[in-house]
Amino acid sequence: MNRKATALDVAKLAGVSRSAVSLVLNGRGDGNVAKESQVRIREAAATLKYTPNAIAVSLRNRRSRIIGIVSDQVVTSPFDGNIIAGADAVARSQGFVTVVMDTELDETRDESAVATLLDRQVDGLMYVTVGLRPLHVPINMLRVPSVLANCFDDRPEAGVPAVIPDEVRGGREAATHLLELGHRDIAFLAGDSITPAAPRRIQGHRDAYEAAGLPVRPGRILQVGWDIDAGFHGAMKLLDGVAAPERPTAIVCANDRGAIGVVLAANRLGLAIPQDLSIMGYDDEFRIASTMVPALTTMALPLREMGAAAMTGLLRELSEEPEDNDDDAPGQTLVPCRLVVRESTGQVPAGRA
Amino acid sequence: MNRKATALDVAKLAGVSRSAVSLVLNGRGDGNVAKESQVRIREAAATLKYTPNAIAVSLRNRRSRIIGIVSDQVVTSPFDGNIIAGADAVARSQGFVTVVMDTELDETRDESAVATLLDRQVDGLMYVTVGLRPLHVPINMLRVPSVLANCFDDRPEAGVPAVIPDEVRGGREAATHLLELGHRDIAFLAGDSITPAAPRRIQGHRDAYEAAGLPVRPGRILQVGWDIDAGFHGAMKLLDGVAAPERPTAIVCANDRGAIGVVLAANRLGLAIPQDLSIMGYDDEFRIASTMVPALTTMALPLREMGAAAMTGLLRELSEEPEDNDDDAPGQTLVPCRLVVRESTGQVPAGRA
DNA sequence: TTGAAAGCGATACCAC
DNA sequence: GTGGTATCGCTTTCAA
Predict the structure, then answer these.
(1) Residue B27 domain boundaries
(2) Contact B78/A51, CB-based, under 8 Å?
(3) Is the CB of B18 under 7 A from strand C?
(4) Do B17 and B73 have their domain in common?
(5) Model confidence over A51-97: pLDDT tens digits?
(6) From the Cβ of B18, is strand D under 7 Å away?
(7) Same structural domain for residues B108 and B11?
(8) Does residue A327 have a pLDDT over 70?
(9) Which of A72, A250, A350, B206 is 20 to 30 A (C-alpha) from A132?
């Protein structure tokens, strides 16, 4: 198997021309090529293990069936890889291949990554980020159909459709879950105010309280950060040395890592979960939330769905392109989060309802 | 900017032929093209924002400057993404682009992923896995220069070079760190016996004891699994209801997640870390080990280095290929792990030395 | 020093 | 029905 077989090799072996080979192997044989020849061509292709040279096909057709994915740090970081997985699954199911380029958070590489991808004649582009955030869309992305996943254009005039999680609703449903368990004094350990996810989740939290006709107790919403130690210290501030009646009966964290910190703190203080304190995470991080002790109730981000939705929209745009109708501009698509109830949340302690 | 500029457009604008454009833009202008024309060509290229069509170049040169990366679940899972990051950095620095295809652990997709990549005319292939493991190398990988990262050929006759972490040494150095702190009764919560990492780390652990002339206490090596709950239950087995003199003074975990479980258990039992118990993780997982409370001492896997080493070797093979000399077959390259000392390990408690 | 021409491998139109 | 041929964009001889 020295060199790959070409269409010409197949044609020779089958005793026909390469045009015939092309037609038959692309399913347009009937009505153009004699049945008999078709069989011979297929046999020849099989014996030679012929597969078309995708590069040549791309050059000829001026489309590569490649979707370029630019990621800020999805590959490097442990987060949000399922966005790419979801996108790739959809792409693959339609005969597309995805090419991922990770800029490792170096924004100066954005344009060059897009340029490289464009030079490779990608048919479309997707930009994926770790964590919801505004994005300064690389100008060259506008040259081909594009979509944003987990981020949105920082210029209002937009133009590039975005698929993002419905964070407000997620925050609302998280709070609602706890309110339904009888909790009234719920603390919220948010990430930071820089990323849009935290304020949106907080907004949802407030919405839930409002819908229940209850006031959010002052000082119950703290922006502490996204890591284990942030959750730990935030929880200590809320719980350590505080008399039981003054303690929140539940803590919602900005993510599962923060929740780990809260559990760590609760363990140290001798508080039982969920009997003394209910704890919720956010993200449903793979093999973190489900394996915690106790297993974490959490709000799962719809990562796969987001990736799939973004890719589906992009591929649709690709196939519709000839018409070039902008009137169905999708703008932002909000994908709902999923509440996953496990063991870390329970009924409010007696006397605190 | 409707269609991208081609070499012909540049040639017209500069008033020369496309051959001249090609020569100049590929650095072989001197001695072939008049200085004056060279300037005009460069100017024309700049004004037209000309960049060569990579697809056409690939077809013509019969090499794509693309390295295909097949991953079992590196993209999807939160682990080991830095192998790809390290590999990509090296590839990019040499003008190559990497294309990642993730099979999501579906081995039946291995061959088709390789075939797809081969159809795209990749110049080389890399297979990357999450966690060290033997790999049934897809047969078609042998058609182009290839390399394995974090895995190794399950058939001894091999042929495909592999870059893997030096797990035995890692286990040894972890144990040595604790022995140097005076610990004599060290427990090892290993993952499972299916993946080769656990037994190798255990081997290193035993080696360290042997080198120190000490016996490993029976029952101190438990294979419990890789997750938080595994570490928790393993630790409870070792610690709960056990009198202080009979408790191990240190616990080494197969990974950082297990260590989280051990800390959780220790907190519940009222044991202070590291005063009562030293705990070590393994992996130095991003924003886990460093943000734990207390911050975890851990054995960092050399992920970036592995990826970089694998890609460096692969690219070298690509450039050497003409000679086709197998005599420098690299076989397996072992990359050392890095001990990261933080707060979870300390001197052995008084009286337990 | 320059430009014309031959491919790289596949597709699709158009005569036959 | 069939096969010749132009074309995609670029590189690289080879004449002029």
Answers:
(1) 7-52
(2) no
(3) yes
(4) no
(5) 999 999 999 999 999 999 999 999 888 899 999 999 999 999 998 99
(6) yes
(7) no
(8) no
(9) A250
